[in-house]
Amino acid sequence: MHLNMKLAVIAAAVALAACGKKEEAMPAETAAAPAAAAAPAAEAAVIKIGHVGPTSGAIAHLGKDNENGARMAIEELNAANLTINGAPAKFELLAEDDAADPKQGTAAAQKLVDAKVAGVIGHLNSGTTIPASQIYNDAGIPQISPSATNRNTPVRAYPELPSVWWLMMCTSVARLASTPSRVSKAKNVAVIDDRTAYGQGVADEFEKGVVAAGGTVVGREFTNDKATDFNAILTTLKAKKPDVKFFGGMDAVAGPMLKQMKQLGIEAKFMGGDGICSAQLPTLAGDGLSDDQVYCAEAGGVEGEEKVGMDKFREDFRVSLARGAGLCSLRL
Questions:
Q1: What percent of the chain has pLDDT over 70?
Q2: What is the DSSP string of 34-99?
Q3: What secondary structure does DSSP assign to 132-171, as a single string?
Q4: What is the pLDDT of residues 65-89, one digit of tens each?
Q5: Which of these, 140, 196, 149, 153, lies nearest to 172 by C-alpha position?
Q6: Which of 33-47, 74-88, 202-216 has the lowest mean pLDDT?
Q7: Would you say 260 and 230 are in contact if contact means Cβ atoms under 8 Å apart?
Q8: Is residue 294 a contact partner of residue 275, using CB atoms and an 8 Å limit?
Q9: In degrees rounded to 5, what are phi and psi of residue 84?
Q10: Cα–Cα distance between 221 and 317 in angstroms, integer?
């Protein structure tokens, strides 16, 4: 997932939208008056930008990628020597860990509100983004999520939420799930989800796509985002002989699930959304991952002229990480 690229863009967008103002024209009488003495240097305006994501727990590698992208954006903003109303602007990142847990996510959101941040980048997961969005809305703080894909849920959960305060930078679960359901030629499909807002949402949309394409969902099972034992549900689905298993969830669960599929002799293809599209999946799956077995849908793509910009971003991100003394393992 090229989330760091998105973060580099949206960090600037949040900061400038939240606090950027045009210089007001100087009154004519003031402009005409001779300068009696040099004006004192304007004090720097400090703009705090919040970032929230899981930097502990099973998907900390994804959250740290997002955070590092935000840090890089802050570096770029400060290097640009921007001014606001004539004063130099200094941007600071306040990073919080939500561990992909809704309760911890709302606590992190309230902490950023109390710190009077100008805007928030986050959260990574739909399940933490949704409850946190109400807290930011009540405080009048704009929130941009770089990776939460459950587009409609904040609006449905909080009808009073002004759309200006909650923006999503990537595609919705409906589009993520529709791609594998269209390209799959399988007739018998099994679906598993982790019962999170993201996992269940993307699995529901995939199931709709399969049915619309004339396929059959032979079984639907669920687990949770902390589970490690899937033998019971996999055995149940194995008996139904699916051609494809679709999992709605993240790589931390998908990896062990693939291992147990191999142990049970299940040779079905394995599909998922962008939550399993990571360089960590082969490590998490170990010998459970075989060639041409796993397919995942990821938002966006880099082709043509856009590739040049992406290549520059990769190099800039490497340099940024080097300055940060190894904040995380690079996943690009």
A1: 66
A2: --SSPPPPPPPEEEEEEEEE--SSTTHHHHHHHHHHHHHHHHHHHHTT-EETTEEEEEEEEEEE-T
A3: HHHHHHHHT--EEESS---TTHHHHH-TT--GGGEEE-S-
A4: 889 888 988 888 899 898 888 889 9
A5: 149
A6: 33-47
A7: yes
A8: no
A9: -130, 120
A10: 39
Q: What is the pLDDT of residues 151-189, one digit of tens each?
A: 555 544 455 544 434 444 444 444 444 444 444 566 899
pLDDT at residue 213 greater than cutoff 50 = yes
What are the start-end ranges of the H helices in 239-292? 251-263, 281-285
CA distance 212 to 255: 29
How many C-alpha atoms does 199 have within 13 Å on its Cβ side? 25
Q: Which of 277, 256, 259 is nearest to 198 (CA)?
A: 277
The letter for the amino acid at 103 is: K
* C-alpha of 142 from chain center: 16
Is residue 73 within 8 Å of residue 317, measured between CB atoms?
Answer: no
CA–CA distance, 192 with 273 (Å, rounded to integer): 12
